[in-house]
Each structure stands twice: as C-alpha cells, then as structure tokens.
Target: Protein-S-isoprenylcysteine O-methyltransferase
Amino acid sequence: MSLLAATKIVWALGLIGWYMIRYPFERRVKRERVVDARSRRRERILLTCSTMGLGIIPGIWVATGWPRFANYPFTVVQLVFGTLVFIASLWLFRRTHKDLGKNWSVTLEIKEKHRLITEGVYGHVRHPMYSAFFLWALAQLILIPNVIAGPAGLVGFGILFFFRVGQEEGMMLDTFGDEYRAYMARTPRIIPGLY
Model:
C-alpha cells in the first residue's frame, strides 16, 4: 500500500470515527426541550464553513486526488504523527460528548434542564470540543499532503470558532451569570495553561 493510500484511509477512518461518536448523542438529545437558541441562520453558515474545511474539501481530495497541482511529497513520519493527532482528537471529542451528556448540541442552544459542566475535560478548558476540532484540523494538515485540502480544516473550523465562541460565551453568561464568570476566570478557553 502506498503512503498516499494509507493517509486517505486514516482520514476516512477518522471521519467515520467522528460520526460514530456523534450519532448516538445526536439522537439522544433530540428529545430535550430547547429554551434558548441563538442565530440559527448564522449557525448554519458557520457549520457549512467548518464542514467544507473538515469534510468536503479533504473528501474530494481523498476521493479524486484533486487538486493534484497542490500536492507535495509525503513521509512516513507525517503519516504516523498525523494518525496520532487524529486519534487524540477523537478521544477528546468522545470525552466532551460523554461529559456534556444531554447538555450537548450542534448549535448554540440551552436545554430546559441545562447545567454548567465544569468536570472532566471541562475542568481543564471551557471549550474542549473546539480543542478536539482544532486537533482534527491539525491532523488533517499533517496527513493530507496538499496545500489546499490539508489546511482547509484549519480555515473552515477557524472561521466557525472565531465567529462563534464569543456568542457562545455570551449565551452562557446570560444563562449562568456569576457561576460562568468564575468558571471563565479559572479555566482557559481551548488550550490548557495558554488560551
């Protein structure tokens, strides 16, 4: 098997792993009553940007090799390191879902019995799911030897993150007030000890 075939398989398995983690939680939370939902149209646009960068653009490269002109040489070290980063992102992604339980949602929503989660991975960063997606985007950058498809995840998800995180924190402040302010003061956003 060639290195390119191996990297395509790793990326595809990572995408399947993401879906297998997300699907049961998505089904479970559909029954929860939403009491506050913000910016549905804006959310769809941001989710589309993220999906393009983490799914569609790299998926086209994996399926067709296009755009071939943007390919560059690839090494075993990149394959191994990219695979390890992808595994770490999936582990963190699963933990975030497990820690959030019924409080989880794809878009900015507050559920009827929503509570502020500050345990588990949420004890280290306020937005570990975003951390997991940034790890996925980093894995994609390392795994896909193409200057368009590789960084597309960082661009697409970066757009979602930077246009959404402030709104999300505003919603949490509106809902949890001083409890969330105290949580913000002691817990970094997405990188433990840094940001």
Q: What stands out?
A: Residues 3-186 form a domain with the Four Helix Bundle (Hemerythrin (Met), subunit A) fold (CATH 1.20.120.1630). The chain has a mean pLDDT of 94.
